[in-house]
Amino acid sequence: MTIDSQLQSIIARFDFPGELIECEAIKAGHINRTYRVRFALPEGDARDFVLQRINTFAFKKPKEVMHNVRLVTEHLCAAMEKQGRDPANRVLRLVPVKGGGTLFEDESGSWRAYDFITHARTVDQVDSPAQFREIGRAFGEFQSMLADFPIEELYDTIPNFHHTVRRLEAFERSVGADVKGRAADVAPEIEAIRARKSEMGRIVGMIEAGELPLRVTHNDTKINNVMLDEGTGEALCVIDLDTVMAGSALYDFGDAIRYGASTAKEDERDLGRVRLDMALFTAYTEGFISETANGLTLRELEELPLGALVMTYENGVRFLTDYLDGDVYFHIDSPDDNLARARCQLALLKDMEAHRDEMYAVVRELIAKYR
Question: What DSSP line would sit under 222-249, residue for residue?
Answer without folding.
Answer: -GGGEEEETTT--EEEE---TT-EEE-H
